[in-house]
Amino acid sequence: MKKITILTLFLVMVASTVMLADGVGAFSAFKTGVGARALAMGGAFVAVCDDATATTWNPAGLALLEDTRLAGMSTDLYGLGITHQFVGATTSFANLGIGLGWERISIDGQSVDVGGALGGAFTWGENAIIGSLATNVMDVAMAGANVKYYMANSGLGDAASGFGFDLGLLVSLGDMFVIGVNAMDLAGSTLEWDSGAKDVISGLYKIGAAMKLVEGTFIMAADVDFDGTALGNTHVGMEFQLIDELAIRAGVNITSDFKDAIISVGGGVNIAGLYVDAAYLFNETLGNTLVLSAEFSLGGLLGGNDAVVEEVGTE
135-162 burial, b for 16+ CB within 10 Å, e for fewer? Predict the structure, then answer.
């Protein structure tokens, strides 16, 4: 008897579309980004991207990092049982920034046949393995690229895979300003299912600017998304480093029609190179989300990056 899925699976698509409102199709929720620090700033991070989550926000940011870092994040989106996780590692060698990340979104559901009888439990999962490389270009710019291997599993006997590619750029305009660009899933990426069906992972292009004030302890940032045909969400955020060990953040993610917004607040502490961050995202439509993440600096295990442009950020 043919199986269909109950409402919980549909919530994945609804949640992805409402939170992002830029990309549709497979893996849309991945474009919301990871890390409590960035999300507390409303997702205005494409020109900041100076921590291990740069693999998802802008791979060019890996050229800013001189040390080796490990990072992780986990959250339950909107309290609906939609689990979003990230684990990443970055390091530098000679003039290169190198990153490796794993991102996953999953939801548990239960099948139901066409007659309405409940079937077995299943887990829908979307995964991406991300390999990143970045380098300095002259003295004022950094360029980076991602190669992503996508994997999806319906939990009902069908699986899919495909590749995606990102290109990122950072340009420093003096000591205070940085411009960032990230082209995600250039020209769209195709996901092929075992059944023969295909999904397109839509391309998304982000451009942003960041400004640091008060000797770098205060950051203001803004990003705009573009899907190739129309402008998407606008992201605005700030971070203030109260002391070396404590920062507070706030931001807003505004939909393209300016009818909906996600307001975010958060903070972070630095304990001997261990950065622990939290963000709280207020979404009136679907519910609120608490995001927790951590990042640990292991120091320059591979010798560091000797030609780093002065970074915009606090980590």
Answer: bbeeeebbbbbbebebebbbbbeeebeb
Contact 233, 20 (CB under 8 A): yes
Decide if 313 is inside a domain.
no
Q: Which two tokens stand for residue 19?
A: 């939170």
Answer yes or no: is 311 within a domain: no
Average pLDDT of every residue of the chain: 85
pTM value is 0.86
Structure tokens at 94: 């000679």
User: Strands, DSSP E only, in 174-230?
Assistant: 177-184, 189-193, 198-201, 204-213, 218-226
Query: 50 is in which domain, residue-wise?
Result: 3-305
What's the token pair of residue 169?
Answer: 């750029």
Between CA 127 and CA 273 the distance in angstroms is 29
Helix (H) or strand (E) holding 276: strand 274-282
CATH number at residue 172: 2.40.160.60
- Are 73 and 156 spatial neighbours (Cβ–Cβ below 8 Å)? no
- Asked if residue 26 belongs to a domain, the reply is yes
Residue 113, pLDDT score = 55
Q: How many domains does the chain have?
A: 1
Neighbours of 11 (CB within 10 A): 18
Low pLDDT (below 70) residues in the chain: 1-26, 109-122, 300-315
Domain membership flag for residue 315 = no
Q: Are strands 141-153 and 189-193 parallel, antiparallel or unpaired?
A: unpaired
